[in-house]
Specification:
The chain contains 26 helices and ten strands. A hairpin with a 2-residue loop joins strand 2 and strand 3. Helix 5 runs antiparallel to helix 10, helix 5 runs antiparallel to helix 20 and helix 8 runs antiparallel to helix 9. It starts with 20 loop residues before the first helix and ends with a helix. Keywords: Membrane, Repeat, Transmembrane, Transmembrane helix, Transport.
């Protein structure tokens, strides 16, 4: 039954569902999930596995048997997302996204408005067909370079990059993993609500295009006025991270027991707070030297430590402090011997939760750690032992060839383009043809997107776009585990009656409001919840409630499903609501409030545009 906007039909009183023990138990599991997602006491993938275990252990109340508990791993949405991540990885290996970003930025020059226009135009359309997480990861160094060449603060461009990718993800079914999951939930609920069905490839492209256009115009013409210049144009990394305060040059004195020994042995003598980042032997300078590097008398060691340790080095007998302890001339010189750049800890990085060990980091990444920015704040004194988190930014110095290798790793995002990037550019036409084929066959409904995406993965390997061993690196496994964990939680919500009970409460408290207002409230609530838990968890929790509430007030359940789906992909109020926001947190030097300052007006604007668009396209 459709309802004219703003004039709800009179409804028969709906009987209140019984608040059973099953519902209370499921609510308890949801509460545990929310607390774990919010506090991040456990990694997101571990939390997802724990949810499966809890749901199955509590089977008498949740109704989730072992088979249903692990069904998320074989769910169409999970497999489709996995395949699409691999396809996105194939496109990224060709360098196509980076080349598009560079070409779109070529005309920008020093005009901030042109730079913003290039950023939005290079990001939004691409994010409609590739997962927006790798798109942003690939474009962070491109956009940073555009800002530096145009004498613009990167802070003016990086949040718009993240936001543009989010609104662009709403152009097609495959733009985000959230869309694919929402489609699967909608199809499952179709048995109870005839209006619901699996989304087609371009089901909401019309509305998505409007949202992307409005969001893009806001970012180009309004948003940049609200963004401060946290990082100055062409920022001096050494000055920004105050590296000079923690760098010292020490020479191996004649007769020192360090002569003939290794850097590992020197570190043991000088103390764990001292990290050797360069070695000057005669005229040769070694950047990020290996622990097995041998030292000789007269070698000069450039060390990174804290102020107290620098004072201790002045009294050390095995080395002699040389030069100005506050000088960082050797570090700031960007020559062929070593390049300064920032590395952002990515979402599925092995570094997340690890304590920073500069020695081990140098051995694994061949880069010397000089500074750290945690939650937007530069960490000055003690780096050793700091626990790393998603979005933390490390200032490192590394040889040029190392920078190229780092740009192809999944552990970190390099915030500066390597000088000699190695892409499979000759495979770009093949990769694009495969992607077009996947989209076209699914759009024509010849075969479902699950099958076409898997066929595309095989084609990527057969044609040499991807090597077989690169398939696993292209997948963000924490997202896959998250989907596998929250899918059975959604089933428990539906089967236990918990979703219906929540929907009854919504109808009782908001049923007297105009239908458009209730729809708008679902959008706002979803957006707020997405800020503290994952967007995928948001749709799992709220789509069943939204559909039941819509039926309870005689509205169109599909309209409410669309509101939740769109809102779950627009996390603009803080850095933790969406992974792309974290990727730009460090390189932009942002504070938490910067996201809210520019994101709150955008969230409000898009909530109105989206709700009115839903009413126009599907009716409420």
């Amino acid at each position: 039954m459709s309802v004219a906007a703003g004039v709800p039909l009179a409804q028969e009183p709906v009987a209140q569902p019984a608040l059973t023990t099953d519902i209370l138990v499921v609510f308890g599991v949801v509460a545990v999930a929310l607390v774990l997602f919010l506090t991040e006491r456990l990694p997101i993938d571990v939390t997802a596995i724990l949810l499966i275990v809890i749901l199955v252990v509590l089977e008498p109340w949740t109704g989730i048997d072992p088979s249903t508990g692990v069904s998320g791993f074989s769910n169409d949405a999970t497999i489709t997302v996995l395949a699409m991540l691999i396809l996105s990885g194939g496109i990224s290996r060709t360098g196509l996204v980076q080349e598009l970003g560079r070409r779109m930025a070529a005309f920008a020059g020093t005009s901030l408005r042109k730079q913003l226009f290039a950023t939005v135009l290079a990001t939004s359309p691409v994010s409609g067909f590739l997962n927006n997480t790798p798109v942003v990861a690939l474009l962070v160094p491109v956009v940073t370079d555009v800002a530096n060449r145009g004498n613009t603060s990167p802070s003016k461009l990086l949040i718009p990059l993240s936001y543009a990718s989010q609104v662009g993800g709403m152009l097609t079914l495959i733009g985000t993993s959230t869309n694919i999951l929402a489609s699967d939930i909608s199809a499952r609920l179709g048995a109870d609500y005839p209006e619901l069905h699996r989304f087609s490839m371009f089901e909401f492209t019309g509305l998505g295009a409007i949202v992307a256009l409005v969001g893009g115009l806001y970012l180009v013409f309004v948003g940049h006025y609200l963004l401060p210049e946290r990082v100055p144009p062409r920022a001096d990394y050494v000055e920004e991270y105050a590296v000079g305060d923690y760098i010292a040059d020490v020479a191996v004195v004649p007769g020192s027991p360090l002569a003939g020994g290794t850097i590992r042995e020197a570190t043991a003598v000088l103390g764990p707070e001292v990290d050797v980042v360069q070695v000057l032997h005669d005229e040769d300078r070694s950047v990020a030297p290996r622990q097995a590097t041998r030292l000789s008398e007269g070698d000069v060691l450039v060390v990174r430590t804290d102020r107290d340790a620098i004072a201790t080095l002045e009294d050390a007998e095995v080395v002699e402090l040389v030069g100005d302890p506050q000088s960082a001339a050797e570090i700031s010189a960007l020559d062929s011997e070593g390049i300064l750049t920032e590395l952002v800890v990515s979402l599925d990085s092995r570094l997340v939760g690890e304590r920073l060990d500069p020695e081990r980091f140098r051995e694994e990444f061949n880069a010397a750690v000089l500074g750290l920015r945690h939650h937007g704040t530069v960490v000055g004194e003690r780096l050793v032992g700091r626990r790393l988190d998603v979005g933390d930014t490390l200032l490192v110095q590394a040889p040029p060839d190392t920078l190229d290798r780092l740009s192809r790793r999944d552990d970190v995002i390099v915030a500066r383009e390597p000088p000699r990037p190695e892409y499979r550019a000759d495979k770009a036409p093949i990769a694009v043809a495969i992607m077009i084929g996947v989209v076209a066959i699914a759009a024509l409904e010849i075969y479902p997107i699950l099958l076409t995406a898997l066929a595309g993965v095989v084609a990527m390997v057969v044609t040499g776009v991807l090597e077989p061993n690169e398939l696993y690196d292209a997948v963000e496994w924490d997202i896959i585990f998250l989907l596998a964990g929250v899918i059975p939680l959604g089933i428990a919500l539906e089967q236990s009656g918990a979703a219906a009970y929540l929907a009854f409460l919504v109808v009782q408290t908001a049923g007297f409001l105009p239908t458009l207002v209730v729809l708008w409230l679902f959008y706002i609530v979803t957006g707020l919840i997405t800020e503290v838990i994952s967007n995928n968890a948001s749709v799992v929790l709220l789509i069943p409630v939204a559909a039941a509430a819509a039926a309870g007030i005689g509205s169109n359940p599909f309209a409410f499903v669309m509101a939740v789906t769109f809102a779950a992909s627009t996390a603009f109020l803080g850095p933790i609501g969406y992974q792309t926001n974290l990727f730009v947190y460090g390189p932009g030097g942002y504070r938490f409030t910067d996201y809210f300052r520019v994101g709150a007006p955008l969230q409000l604007l898009l909530s109105i545009v989206t709700v009115l668009g839903i009413a126009f396209f599907w009716g409420v």
